[in-house]
Amino acid sequence: MHVLLIEDDSEAASFLVKGLRESGYSVDHAADGREGLSRATEGQFDLIVTDRMLPHIDGLAIIELMRGKGIQTPVLVLSALGSVDDRIRGLKAGGDDYLTKPFAFAELLARIEVLLRRRAGAAHSTRLKVQDLELDLLARRVTRGGREVELTGRELKLLEFLMRRAGQVVTRTMLLEGVWDLHFDPQSNLIDVHISRLRQAIDRGTDHPLIHTVRGSGYVLRTDS
Questions:
Q1: Number of domains making up the chain
Q2: Last residue in a domain, options 98, 122, 146
């Protein structure tokens, strides 16, 4: 499991990174809000743990900006601000949990496990929705703004893969392994052709395209341009 830790206190960050890695997590660390927002919106993470009071951009602003881009990665907020109003503010900003400092590391681990279990459960949903795009996996039915979208089996699988990772950059390697079950790059335009067809089907006739190319990285399904 890949975790992003956003924490400006170097001593606290060192302790948390060490503890999380010893608990089996892969951890990236961002030392301020600006770097944290960049990593959160461009990287592939299973969970984000962020301090609330950060240089440049505070933790709640990071969450609001993420949610505005359609990124639904679970976020655990860490903060010395522990009043009821502060916790409510954190949750209303889009945080999934709020842990007040100081805290026991064992409790942090327990809360992380709960959020990851919740995310795993959501990943098995048979109905997916991103803005006005809806996918019913049982009926194998796709609609965009109420318009029926006809897709092949492979295009449907590709769309499901992108929708389950809405807001996150998906690399060519991830697509080859997750959609085609290939563990090597056939050096062909296989992905480009299918993405192009999916784009035409999903975004045709709309002013707000959902499928975007991220140069040098891959693709992302998101609501902003």
A1: 2
A2: 122
> Domain containing 152: what range?
127-221
Per DSSP, 120 falls in state H
Bridge partners (DSSP) listed for residue 144: 133, 147
Provide the β-strand partners of residue 129: 134
What one-character DSSP code corresponds to residue 23?
T
Q: What is the CATH number of the domain that holds 162?
A: 1.10.10.10
pLDDT per position as a tens digit, 165-215: 888 888 888 888 888 888 777 778 999 999 999 999 999 888 889 999 988
The span from the CA of 72 to the CA of 168, in Å, is 9
Whether 5 and 49 have beta carbons less than 8 Å apart is answered as yes
Question: Is the pTM of the predicted complex or chain greater than 0.70?
Answer: no
Distance in angstroms (rounded) separating the CA atoms of residues 142 and 127: 10
Q: How far is CA 167 from the centre of its chain?
A: 6
